Amino acid sequence: MLRRLLRPAATAAVAAGLSIGLASASIAAPAVDPQPWRLRTPKLTEDATFPKAMLTSLARPTAAPPLANNWSCKPSAAHPEPVILIHGTWENAYDNWAGLSPIIADQGYCVFALNYGNTTGLRGINATGDMVASNEEVAAFVARVREATGAEHVALVGHSQGGAQARYYANLVAPAGEVTKVIMITPSNHATTLSGITVLGDLLHLKQFGFAVLDLIKMPSAVQQASPDAPFYVNLNGDGETRPGLDYTVIATKYDEVVTPYTQSFVTAVPGANVDNITLQNVCAQDFSDHLSVNYSKNVAQIVLNKLDPEHPHAIKCYFQAAVAGTTR
Question: How far is 218 from 225, CA to CA, in rounded Å?
Answer without folding.
Answer: 14
